[in-house]
Specification:
With 360 residues, the chain is an alpha/beta fold. It contains 15 helices and eight strands. Helix 6 runs parallel beside helix 7.
Length: 360
């Protein structure tokens, strides 16, 4: 393994400097995670998953399965070859999929999150990371905010954990005060909170649509609704005023809805600001200091000029960060996802915004 890492490090000098903000590593099997768990949680853990609303065809790219066997995203050397070296990526921001946020037992959910963090630190951020290309996310179970805050503090200061992560699926909008211990710990550690879809309407979590969709295509399309609700909640509840150092990353929740949502919220604020006196400025004015959004899935209209206009309207120069969602079925290639961008804008989206946020 040491020889492989050294060889990879030598081969990775010809980079284009991309920072990919959504790459999913997977354990080789459930026993890898169980080895970090105590009883009775070890016997209860069955490797997670959503249970329903699964992709009816393939959840992952079929060419992402490692030649030596195992799930897609479980072989770091194959990931380097197929993704890091192919596209010239400086860093992959890793977001494991623990699916712990749907569990009704908060103690079990916390144990699953902790086991994933121990596993990630030992493997992808440890023995697989001789070149430092991998940066990780601290998984938390938001069902128990105090335990989640303790888990953040347990890993704060680790050189390769650069953010905290949770699912967008929840029982309440994220601006509400029961979640404040999480945001206090994030701000204290200087770590942004990444919100990723995956358990909306599953387990204890409420579906963001008025009812439960019939098909995966409907569920997957409407995942962005949950992100919109959480963002409005963060702003109107005054989270960014209460925790001025706190930042949020909206991962895999879509992009093009942001301008229209902020126009609507700014208009509402003009008439209703007396209701939320802790909101000290226009809602959209909080975005640059507190919110980042990742590009995948990038809505690509038939006319590329319309997307470029949307990027300008949403202040993509400062808010947008590239992500591929490797190795999933809806992977966005760094070469194909965007139309041709002006070089300064490309640098901001593909590198500089993430470099600044994660202090890389």
């Amino acid at each position: 393994m040491e020889e492989q890492i050294k060889s990879t490090h030598n081969r990775s000098t010809n980079k284009t400097g991309i920072i990919d903000c959504d790459v999913h590593p997977y354990p080789k099997n459930k026993e890898e995670i169980q080895s970090y768990m105590k009883q009775p949680w070890r016997e209860r853990f069955n490797s997670g998953g959503r249970g329903h609303y699964g992709n009816p065809v393939h959840g992952d790219r079929q060419d992402a399965k490692p030649p030596g066997g195992g799930p897609s995203g479980s072989d770091p050397e194959f990931l380097r070859e197929q993704h890091v070296l192919k596209y010239g990526i400086d860093h992959c921001i890793l977001l494991p999929r623990a699916f712990c946020n749907l569990l009704p037992d908060p103690d079990f959910a916390t144990a699953v999150a902790a086991a994933f963090n121990d596993w990630l630190a030992d493997t992808w951020l440890g023995k697989y990371n001789g070149d430092g290309v991998f940066k990780g996310s601290i998984t938390i179970a938001h069902q128990d905010p105090l335990a989640a805050a303790a888990e953040i503090r347990r890993w704060a200061g680790h050189p390769h954990f650069v953010q905290v992560m949770t699912d967008s699926g929840a029982r309440a909008p994220f601006g509400q005060r029961q979640y404040y211990p999480i945001y206090e710990a994030c701000a204290e550690a200087g770590l942004p909170l990444a919100i990723h879809p995956g358990t909306d309407g599953m387990g204890i979590n409420i579906q963001p649509t008025p009812g439960y969709p019939t098909h995966y295509i409907e569920w997957h399309t409407c995942l962005s609704l949950g992100f919109q609700a959480h963002l409005v909640s963060f702003i109107t509840e005054g989270v960014f005023e209460r925790f001025p150092g706190f930042k949020v990353v909206l991962v895999e929740g879509g992009v093009s809805w942001l301008p229209a949502l902020m126009w609507r919220l700014d208009a509402e604020y003009k008439a209703l600001r007396y209701e939320v006196p802790w909101v000290k400025k226009r809602p959209s004015d909080y975005l640059r200091d507190h919110v980042r959004i990742t590009s995948q899935p990038l809505e690509r209209p038939d006319n590329d000029s319309h997307l470029l206009q949307t990027l300008e309207m949403m202040d993509a120069e400062h808010l947008l960060m590239f992500s591929s969602d490797y190795p999933h079925w809806d992977f966005d290639s760094p070469k194909l996802a965007f139309p041709k961008l002006p070089e300064p804008l490309w640098q901001r989206i593909f590198r500089e915004n993430a470099k600044q946020l994660y202090k890389l």
